[in-house]
Amino acid sequence: MRRAVGIGGLRRKEAERQALSRKGNELAQREIEKLQEQISLMKDNLEDFVREHQKDIRNNPVFRVQVQRMCQLIGVDPLASRKGYMAELLGVGDFYCELGIQIIDICVATRSMNGGLMDLDELRQRLIRKRLKGSEPVVEDDIRRAINQLKPLRGGYRIVTFGKRKMVQSVAREMNPDQSTMLTLAEYTSKFNIEDVRVAFGWDEDRIHSCIDDMLRSGIIWIDSHNDAHPEYWVPAFFSQLSGGSFGNRG
Amino acid sequence: MTSPVSAVVDASTASFQFPEIYSFPPFFTRQPNEATWKEQRRQWCDLILAYYRHNRLFSMSLAEAVTEPPFANRQIHRALRVDVLREIVDELVKQGHASWTGARNSKDSCLLFWRKPEVWASMIHQWANDRGMLNTVLTLFELASGDDTIGQEFHGLDSTTLRKALDILQSQGKAQLFVGTSDEDLGVKFFT
C-alpha cells in the first residue's frame, strides 16, 4: 500500500508539476505576446513620433542623437540605414548618405595637404561650412555614423586617436605603431624633432629616420629645414586645428 | 575660432588676407615628397598671383622678392629660398601666368600675369570700342597712364605687359602698332 500510495503520489505530483509547467508556459507565452504587443505599439508610437518630429530630427542634432539612442534601445534604427522602413518613411537615411559623400569630398580634396589625416573637429567645421544652405548642424556622432556607413567602400575611412586628439583618417594604409607613437609628440605643438623622439622613446637613429621618412612620403608630416642641422617635422592635420581650420583653399 | 597669426605684415600689405598656410613654417621649405610639393607649389602659385594682383605688381626680381612678403614671413621668421621660388615661377610660366625677363636663362626676374595678356588685350579693346576710340591713334603712354583710362583695370599696366597685349590684338587684326622714337611714343590704332 505504502508503495502504491507512494507511486500514486509521485504520479499526482508529476501531473501537478506538468500542469503547473503548462500553465507557466502559457503564462510566459502570454507575457511574451503582451510584450511583443507593447513593443510593436511602442514602435508604432515611435514611428508616429519620428514622423511628427521629422523636421526637428533633421535640424536639431541633440534631438537627433536622443531619438537615435531611444530607437536603438528597442532595436529600431530608423536613421542609420537608408533601406530601413523608417528611413524610407522619413528620408533621414539620406542625411547620412549625403554626409558621407561630403566627408569623402573634403578628405579627398585635402589629402595632398595632410596625407589623409584630418582633425575630427576641423572636418566637422568644414562640413558645416559646406552645408551652409541647408543649415542642418552636424555633430560628432553624425560623422561617426556617416563614416561607419562608408565602411563597405573600403576607402579606409576611420576615426583614430592620438592622445586626446580625434582624427579622421581617409587612406587605406594603416599607420604603424611607431608612426602613431611619434605623432603623439606633436599633439599640442603640431611639431617634433629628432631629439624629441630620442628623448621620449629612446629609439635609435635608424628607427627614427625610417619612421620619419615613411610619414614624409605619405604626406602626413612636412619638413621645416629653417634650421638645417635640426629640421622640425610638422603635422598639418594638427596645425590646421590650431588655427581654427581653414587650411588649404579647397574643400 | 582663434587666428593666432595675424595676416597683416606691414603697411603695404595691410589689407591683404594671407591664407592659413602662410603661417605654417614648413610652407617655406620645399617638401621632398612629390605629391606634397605639387600641392605646396600650387598654393604658392595661388598666393603669388593673389598678392601681386592685390598690390597691382607686375614684375618680380627674385633675389629681392624673397626678402619681403609674401615670400618672407617675418612673424614666423621664415623665408622661401631663391632656388625654390625659381621652381615655382617656372610653374607659373608653364601656366602662362608669368614670363622670364632679363638675361637669357638667368631666371632672375620675371613678369607676372595675374591676368593673362589675352585678357588684358580684350579688356583694352573693349574700352577702345566703348569710348569710340577705334581708328584713332593713341600712344601707349596715353593708354597706360592717360586721364582717359583712369579707373580702368589696365590703367598703370607695365609697358612690357601692355605691349604683349597689344601684340596679341595686332595678330588678331584688331590693332596696328606704330613705331615711335621710344617705347612710350609707340602708337596704336584699334579696329573692330
Can you give a write-up of this model?
The complex is a heterodimer of chains A (251) and B (192). Chain A has 2 domains: 36-90; 96-242, Arc Repressor Mutant, subunit A (Orthogonal Bundle), CATH 1.10.10. In chain A, 63% of the residues lie in helices and 9% in strands. Chain A is built from 11 helices and 6 strands. Chain A has helices at 2-52, 54-59, 61-73, 85-90, 93-114, 120-130, 140-150, 177-184, 194-201, 205-218, 236-242; strands at 117-119, 158-162, 165-169, 191-193, 222-224, 232-234. Chain A has a 3-stranded antiparallel β-sheet, sandwiched between helices. A 3-stranded antiparallel β-sheet of chain A has the order 4-6-5. With 192 residues, chain B is α+β, with helices and mostly antiparallel strands. Chain B folds into 2 domains: 11-112, "Winged helix" DNA-binding domain. Chain C. Domain 1 (Arc Repressor Mutant, subunit A, Orthogonal Bundle), CATH 1.10.10.570; 117-190, Arc Repressor Mutant, subunit A, CATH 1.10.10.10. Helix content of chain B is 38%, strand content 14%. Residues 1-13 of chain B have low confidence and may be disordered. The chains are: A mainly alpha (251), B alpha+beta (192). The A-B interface holds A 112-113, 115, 191, 216-219, 222-226, 231-232, 234, 236, 239-240, 242-249 and B 1-5, 19-21, 23-29, 31-33, 35-36, 38-39, 43, 46, 77-78. Chain B: Keywords: Cytoplasm, Protein transport, Transport. Chain B: One of its GO terms (molecular function) is structural molecule activity.
